[in-house]
Amino acid sequence: MSALEQELRARFGARLQCGRPLADLTSFRIGGPADFYLVVESEDELAVALAAATRNQVPAVCLGSGTNLLVSDRGVRGLVVKLGEAFDTISIDGVKVAAGAAAQFRTLVETVVAAGLAGLEFGEGIPGSVGGGLIMNAGAFGGEMARVVTAVHGVTGEGKCRALAKEEVGFEYRRTALPPRFVITRVGFELTPGDREVLLGRVKELHAKRAARQPQGFPNAGSVFKNPPGNFAGRLLEGVGLKGARVGAAAFSDQHANFIVNLGGARAEEVRALIELARSQVRDRTGVVLEPEVKLIGDW
Ligand SMILES: Cc1cc2nc3c(=O)[nH]c(=O)nc-3n(C[C@H](O)[C@H](O)[C@H](O)COP(=O)(O)OP(=O)(O)OC[C@H]3O[C@@H](n4cnc5c(N)ncnc54)[C@H](O)[C@@H]3O)c2cc1C
């Protein structure tokens, strides 16, 4: 038994899982096992787990709802930590909203709209957790997390609780620059008062737009590539004839070229091969270098 396993086993007992497959925790339904997998139910537990991994020089990564991840077929070395139900909270105080990092972003949108607060409607239909949404600076239809976030709370790799001001998050298009191993536990937002009926109408409109654009029926992880400046990844991929292109059981969707779908039993290697194929074809034919939006984690 490794030193890390000994330490975590002593504190968490049977809650620490070894070799837990991760595929069912991702929207792609793809991926091998985590060496160590732990669901934590308090900041204190999170701090203990992160500090133990760091002290033992073992990698540690936080899994949100797995909707933007491609997990390697070989799995993830080290500790995969997930925030449990205790982090699934939403509270509203006037125009200020605090959400636990495990709350679903969609639930947050529904809750604030029902309370007549404007600013998060863009998040209608974005799957995943508040923590994952913050890390990805999730956005759609011209809106993004960065515009409404005021504060971020979390735990460092050394196990210290920290509150970060918005400026420290380093928001950019679909990325942030938080310190390595920093796990977000809570996010503060400031919204504006709005008319509930108008907000509901806007959400309904965005729901219909999304339903018309996105492929239905097969597991996927949303847009595979970020849109390059002044262009759309989907348009470039379609332009080089990749719509419908397939490697094994992974394929670029017939409906939207920037989505890779798992047709059933796809392997991470097959998805990665499609990503590499697309990057090289688009680069060779248009000179544009596509940057993946989906995060590849694990042992490649
Ligand atoms: C059908 C579909 C549609 C989508 N549409 C959109 C869209 O319109 N706009 C958009 O921006 N995205 C979209 N996405 C992508 C995805 O939903 C978002 O990126 C989402 O915010 C990811 O959240 P998650 O909880 O699933 O994060 P995960 O996929 O679990 O993780 C993403 C990254 O965040 C890290 N992470 C997660 N939680 C934490 C935490 N608490 N602390 C520290 N690190 C953490 C992970 O380590 C990983 O690096 C879509 C995905 C799907 C499947």
Q: Roughly what fraction of the amino acids lie in strands?
A: 25-35%
| CA-based gyration radius | 20 Å
Kindly report the CATH topology of the largest domain: Uridine Diphospho-n-acetylenolpyruvylglucosamine Reductase, domain 3
Q: Outline the low-pLDDT stretches.
A: none
**Global geometry:** globular
N to C succession of SSEs: HEEHEEEEEHEHEEEEEEHEHEEEHE
Keywords:
single chain; 28% helix; 7 helices; 300 residues; Uridine Diphospho-n-acetylenolpyruvylglucosamine Reductase, domain 1; Uridine Diphospho-n-acetylenolpyruvylglucosamine Reductase, domain 2; five-stranded antiparallel β-sheet; Uridine Diphospho-n-acetylenolpyruvylglucosamine Reductase, domain 3; binds flavin-adenine dinucleotide; four-stranded mixed β-sheet
Structure explained in plain terms:
The protein has 300 residues and is of the alpha+beta class. It has three domains: 3-85, Uridine Diphospho-n-acetylenolpyruvylglucosamine Reductase, domain 2 (2-Layer Sandwich); 88-198, Uridine Diphospho-n-acetylenolpyruvylglucosamine Reductase, domain 3, CATH 3.30.465; 215-294, UDP-N-acetylenolpyruvoylglucosamine reductase, C-terminal domain (Uridine Diphospho-n-acetylenolpyruvylglucosamine Reductase, domain 1), CATH 3.90.78. 28% of the residues lie in helices and 27% in strands. The chain has seven helices and 19 strands. The strands form six sheets. A five-stranded antiparallel sheet has the order 6-7-13-11-12. A four-stranded mixed sheet has the order 1-2-5-3, covered by helices on one side. A hairpin with a 2-residue loop joins strand 16 (246-247) and strand 17 (250-252). The longest helix has 19 residues, at 268-286. It starts with a helix and ends with a strand. The mean pLDDT is 97. The chain binds flavin-adenine dinucleotide (FAD). Residues 27, 61-69, 83, 101, 126-129, 131-133, 135-136, 138-140, 183-184, 214, 220-222, 295 line the site of flavin-adenine dinucleotide (FAD). Flavin-adenine dinucleotide is lined by residues 27, 61-69, 83, 101, 126-129, 131-133, 135-136, 138-140, 183-184, 214, 220-222, 295.
